[in-house]
Design brief:
alpha/beta, eight-stranded mixed beta sheet, four-stranded mixed beta sheet, 9 helices, 33% helix, binds N,N,N-trimethyl-histidine
């Protein structure tokens, strides 16, 4: 595989949303000022929140990240042998730590793929891209900055007929309600030509005790991660939400097969946001749903794919069916 001059090897693209992405003020007006109170989980990830998430991934209880990483290390050669992608397009690539398994497999197989990370935190993405092109002299990275909840149809993907492998890891699709998850897969499907594939990482249903512990680790990182969103609201909206008045709760909702993270008011209090010139009264015991993390079975995975005209061509499972990597194609 021919080496490329370094300077052309990381290209940075800004991606314009195809639809308006609600602002924090929009989301607070729409879903926090009145009951039932919810907040989209994307607001967890300020600098402190991202640090806390890294700490969560190191806890003994939170198994998804390390389990997916180990499964990728095992399955990457088979995935690359099956797809041999000309383009590897990743949604929410973060630090691309896990994707390295796929790029290393391309290297071993002599597949000179082109890597297209799509990430909202540009600096993390560009730093990862620089490290990758240092390690793989043949690799070109087209780093796309933007928010995938704003739509995918503006992605500047090469229209060269090359085979595409879309990658969506981390179980993040589990944070979407069923409708939104299907809409997301439909958008990815619209960019898939015959022979293209999607690699999806999804967490599996298991013992509720194991699941609840994974979202309420003994070190308290998840509780701090959850409560940190109050700091985000107060800082960004000039709020006076009393963080000490909120407890962290993680419950496995058996009916919907999902973890629910809640901030629960320990005592009644008023909240006011100067940026909105509005507020609300929290009752003692009242909760704010700050994240859902859906857990899947083989059946619910196949149902979700079928609903989006996709089907699994390969399904890699971790030990005890603890986690799944699905290689899907358009049906
Ligand atoms: C990274 C979004 C997949 O839902 O498991 C970790 C985030 N929340 N602990 C998940 C998270 C609480 C995580 N995702």
């Amino acid at each position: 595989m021919s080496d490329m001059p370094s300077d052309a090897r990381v290209v940075h693209h800004g991606v314009t949303p195809t639809r308006r992405i609600p602002s924090l003020i929009d989301d607070v007006r729409a879903s926090l000022l009145q009951a039932p109170r919810t907040l989209p989980p994307k607001y967890f990830y300020d600098d402190r929140g991202s640090q806390l998430f890294e700490a969560i991934c190191e806890t003994p209880e939170y198994y998804p990240t390390r389990t997916e990483d180990a499964l990728l290390a095992q399955a990457s050669d088979a995935i690359i042998a099956r797809v041999a992608p000309d383009h590897l397009i990743e949604l929410g690539s973060g630090s691309s730590k896990k994707t390295r398994h796929l790029i290393a497999a391309c290297h071993r197989a002599g597949v000179a793929t082109r890597y297209w990370p799509f990430e909202v935190s540009s600096q993390i993405m560009l730093d990862a891209a620089d490290a990758l092109v240092d390690d793989y002299p043949w690799l070109r990275v087209d780093a796309m900055s933007g928010d995938y909840t704003g739509g995918l149809s503006n992605l500047p993907l090469a229209e060269d007929g090359g085979r595409r492998l879309f990658v969506f890891l981390g179980g993040t699709l589990g944070n979407f309600e069923p409708e939104a998850a299907a809409a997301m897969l439909d958008e990815i499907g619209a960019l898939m030509n015959p022979g293209d594939a999607l690699l999806l990482g999804l967490d599996r249903v298991k013992d509720p005790g194991v699941l609840e512990a994974a979202y309420d680790d003994r070190a308290g990182h998840t509780a701090a991660f959850n409560r940190n969103v109050i700091n985000v609201l107060n800082r960004e909206l000039g709020g006076d939400m009393p963080i000490e008045a909120y407890g962290h709760q993680a419950v496995f909702n058996e009916e919907d097969e999902r973890i629910e993270m809640w901030l629960v008011a320990q005592q009644a209090h008023e909240v006011y946001f100067s940026a909105l010139d509005a507020g609300f009264v929290m009752q003692a015991g009242e909760g704010i749903l700050t994240e859902i993390s859906r857990k899947f079975t083989r059946q619910t995975i196949d149902d979700l794919l079928a609903r989006c005209d996709m089907a699994a061509m390969d399904h890699f499972e971790a030990e005890n069916q603890a986690y799944s990597l699905i290689l899907a194609t358009r049906a």
